[in-house]
Design goal:
The chain is α/β, with parallel strands linked by helices and 490 residues long. The protein has 2 domains: 268 residues, Aldehyde Dehydrogenase, Chain A, domain 1; 185 residues, Aldehyde Dehydrogenase, Chain A, domain 2 (3-Layer(aba) Sandwich). It has 15 helices and 22 strands. The strands form 6 sheets. A 7-stranded mixed β-sheet has the order 14-15-16-13-12-18-19, with helices on both faces. The chain has a 6-stranded mixed β-sheet with strand order 9-8-7-10-11-21, with helices on both faces.
């Protein structure tokens, strides 16, 4: 049985109660984790507070070296960690390996930034210099989702730890195992370097208990949250009581616009991967496909043929390209969204069925699904579809495509496919989203800031901007020569 990770040790919860972690592909119990209590999470917060002084006073270059060492330790156990991730989350092994490597890449990125962090300085006046110092916020809470539990945790841990903060992680209840193991390996790198115990702690348990205490505990200065928009709204409301800093990476319904001059084969491949990677369970994913009329039929035909080749099954088996949805409830939600589109006149071009066979019966499987002629009022277009279903919409021109793309309450990612630089720039400038790819699959880069607009979030992860969200700035004025002062107009 797994345990809580507090002060560099695995410990039991005060409750003595546990929650099973199940494999979405088979329904089998992978392990169980403690139901953390308020006392457990308070202990973790207090331990993190106790470690803060020594960790924050550690040189940034040393903190960076620790992150690099942690990445090395994790890569040494890549296959073991990826297997554990597939068992608890359901994604194919290939995707789990990519996620572990993505996590390490993020640690390496921030580790490499350590020696380039600078204090801003400016001459204000004769004999006056101004400095802008950045200081760690303190104890930070990281609330991590189940769809990419490792890589999305890395988005928070990398900048938080490099900036000198200590962290308490609340993993998703259904995917805590790989997060626990990765945090243990990061802590090993900290301990091997002589760092304090308690820099990084993990408490499992219900969001209503563990997550809520992170939100209301006055010692916690920052919350990094990734999850649904409605939950993010509640996080923001709770954090406001103590004026906590928040970074919210929330839901998305990313449009993909394909113009009549696009490289069709590349765009078809991007649409397929962008929608059905991780069984469509990604905030950042192709969720609405807008095709120019003149190429819509040919594009759709190619896309249907490509999607038919996606093999669905247990992610531990070789050759599987798409695993199950994470829960039965998640699958039912997607089924109902597709059914709503069909009731409104939509046509299922492929999928929308549960695969047949004994090896599918105990898992939460659904075929990759394509739906055309989708009504703008349908749930598939109005809501975030967190699963393997893609609505296809025909448009007359770029103006109509952008107008419909911007009709969503979400604004996370987007893409436009065209050989025309003017169209590309129009899309980049006019699409309301935090990220726009031009003729590219939706690949996130640590070098660039990432975060949504509208109801897709608040604040930025990745890039130098992420460091800013884990620090307070302080202005300092230094007088380098003595002179008479005029104060208060006297």
């Amino acid at each position: 049985m797994a345990k809580l990770f507090i002060a560099s040790e695995y410990v039991d919860s005060e409750s003595k109660e546990t929650t099973p972690v199940k494999n979405p592909a088979t329904g089998e119990i992978v392990d169980s984790v403690p139901k953390g209590t308020v006392a457990d999470i308070r202990r973790a917060i207090d331990v993190a507070k106790g470690a803060l002084k020594k960790w924050s006073e550690t040189a940034p270059s040393s903190r960076g070296a620790i992150l690099l060492k942690a990445g090395h330790l994790i890569l040494q156990q890549e296959k073991e960690l990826a297997t554990l991730l597939t068992r608890e989350q359901g994604k194919p092994m290939r995707e789990s390996i990519l996620e572990i490597r993505r996590f390490v890449h993020t640690l390496d990125h921030y580790g490499g930034m350590a020696k380039s962090l600078r204090t801003a300085a400016v001459m204000l006046d004769t004999g006056r210099h101004g400095l802008v110092l950045r200081k760690p916020l303190g104890v930070c809470g990281s609330i991590v989702p189940w769809n990419f539990p490792v890589s999305l945790m890395g988005n928070k841990l990398g900048p938080a730890l490099l900036a000198g903060n200590t962290v308490v992680v609340k993993p998703a209840g259904t995917t805590p195992l790989t997060d626990l193991r990765c945090c243990e390996l990061i802590d090993k790198a900290i301990q091997d370097a002589g760092g304090p115990k308690g820099v990084l702690n993990v408490v499992t348990g219900p969001g209503s208990v563990v997550g809520e205490e992170l939100l209301v505990n006055p010692t916690v200065r920052k919350i990094g949250f990734t999850g649904a928009t409605d939950t993010g709204r509640r996080v923001m409301q709770s954090a406001a009581k103590d004026f906590k800093h928040v970074t919210l990476e929330l839901g998305g319904s990313d449009p993909m616009i394909v113009c009549d001059d696009a490289d069709m084969d590349r765009a078809v491949s991007a649409a397929s991967v962008g929608r059905f990677f991780n069984c469509g369970q990604a905030c950042l994913a192709v969720k609405r496909l807008y095709l120019f009329d003149s190429i819509a039929d040919a594009f759709t035909e190619k896309l249907v043929e490509k999607v038919k080749k996606i093999s669905v099954g247990n992610g531990l088996k070789a050759g599987v390209l798409m695993g199950p949805l994470h829960t039965a409830e998640q699958r039912q939600e997607v089924v109902e969204q597709v059914e709503d589109a069909v009731k409104r006149g939509g046509k299922v071009l492929y999928g929308a069925q549960r695969p047949k066979g004994d090896h599918y019966d105990k898992g939460f499987y659904l075929q990759p699904t394509l739906v055309s002629d989708v009504d703008p009022a349908s749930r598939l277009l109005q809501e975030e579809c967190f699963g393997p279903a893609l609505p296809i919409v025909r448009v007359k021109n770029l103006d109509q495509a952008i107008e419909q793309a911007n009709s969503s309450i979400f604004g996370l990612g987007s893409s436009i496919w065209t050989r025309d630089i003017n169209r590309a720039m129009a899309g980049a400038e006019r699409i309301e989203a935090g990220y726009t790819w031009v003729n590219s699959a939706q690949i996130i880069y640590d070098e660039l800031p990432f975060g949504g607009v509208k109801q897709s979030g608040l604040g930025k992860e990745h890039g130098e901007e992420a460091i800013e969200h884990y620090t307070d700035s302080k202005s300092v004025v230094i007088a380098t020569e003595t002179r008479s002062e005029i104060v208060g107009g006297e």
